[in-house]
Structures are given as structure tokens and as C-alpha cells.
Amino acid sequence: AQSVTQLDSQVPVFEEAPVELRCNYSSSVSVYLFWYVQYPNQGLQLLLKYLSGSTLVKGINGFEAEFNKSQTSFHLRKPSVHISDTAEYFCAVTPNQAGTALIFGKGTTLSVSS
Amino acid sequence: EAGVAQSPRYKIIEKRQSVAFWCNPISGHATLYWYQQILGQGPKLLIQFQNNGVVDDSQLPKDRFSAERLKGVDSTLKIQPAKLEDSAVYLCASSRTGGSGNTIYFGEGSWLTVV
Question: Environment class of residue A40 by beta-carbon count within 10 Å: exposed (0-12), middle (13-18) or buried (19+)?
Fold first, then answer.
């Protein structure tokens, strides 16, 4: 079975500061990894995903994430955040096989203030 | 391209009553998911359909929850009778196929409060 641990439930930062949201996963098989964002009262939107190839993945809104197989991590980063990045961020994993759905972490609330 | 549509957006019911949520996936998407998101937690899969067949319903509380996907397009999720702990957001999602690398697109959710 797979599981996802998001190490920080809340991350407060000031505008234009860098941010890292941490995600670790557990799996006995190869996995695909995802980051989703959820703005208040909205559904989830895909930020980026890692399937294979380069371990550094770039996504929308200036976010990027790095897959580290040895540390089973997939941390999300942004060099300079904006007020509009305030949202809930979810890391998710799915086994590398057909017919399997996403397994989500509990989420990290990113709060950006001026 | 229209996104995943869900209705109603908000519903308040008393415990032991029933409720139904409707979902229309993105056109052409064969796979449809229902997730339950309790406040402060990540979404949890309830059921996954491939066309009109069930792929995974292992976490669906079948004594009170039911779901169907008629003709492989729209889907309905029903809860009967509702319990207080069913208060959550019910997210419908779809993807082009069931391949695990495919992007899953989510609707805005149906917010259920059971009082």
C-alpha cells in the first residue's frame, strides 16, 4: 500500500519570500507523484506531476518540485511567493500501474502575508 | 472545454435523511472518481468507475453509500441514511483513461453538512 506524509500542516510566509512544502511517500512499487492546489471553495487543480525522466519538475504559477527516490521525497518549492498563492496544497501518489487512483496527503496550508 | 460539473454545491440535511449528488465529467473522459474530503484532511477515494463499470469501491461504506454511472457518462452518489460524520466535501473527478499517469481533473465539490 502507498501513503503520503506532508510534514507541515501550516506554513506562514511573507510575500516575495521563498517557500518549500515538504512531502514524503511510502511505497513498495514505483509511483507517480503529484502536487495539487486548492483555493478556498474550489476544487483541486494540478500544479505539476512527476512520471519519469528529469527529477526536477516545473509546474504552473512558478512552482517546481524535485523527486528524490533515495529519500522518498517530493518537495514543492517556489523562489518568491505572492499573496495569491495562499491556498491548501496537497501531495499525492499513485502506483505506476493502470486503474489506480490518487492517494492524498493531509495537505499543507500556505498563508502568504504582506 | 467545460470542466467537471457537480450539483448541488451546498446541502444541509438532518441525520438519517438521504441526499444525492450529481456529477458530469469532462466530455470523453472514461474514468470517473468520487472522493470524500473531510475538513482538515486530504481527499479519500470512495469509488472509481471505468466507463460504467466499477474499478475500485473498497473504501465506499456500502451500508449507506451507493453510486452509479449510467451509460458511462454522468454519475450519482447517494447517501442514505446520513450520519453526522458524513459531513464533508464530495469531489467528483475525471480522467481520459484509467492510466495512473493521466491528469485527474476535479470539480468544485458538493459541500454536505449533516445536523
Answer: exposed
